[in-house]
Amino acid sequence: MLRDQSSDRARRDADKAFKSPQTPKPITDYAKAQHSFNENRERLKAERLAREAAPKDRSK
What we know:
70% helix
């Protein structure tokens, strides 16, 4: 019985050692929506800052 336990422990340790460090997590619908929202917000912010930084030569 102890022999089986030691081989199981060795197998678990080996699995941990050789497991890839970056396992991709499935992306939920909520996370996709948040990501899209944040990208759009950053894009709009960049456009607004570019408009504000543009020269104000629109005199009548």
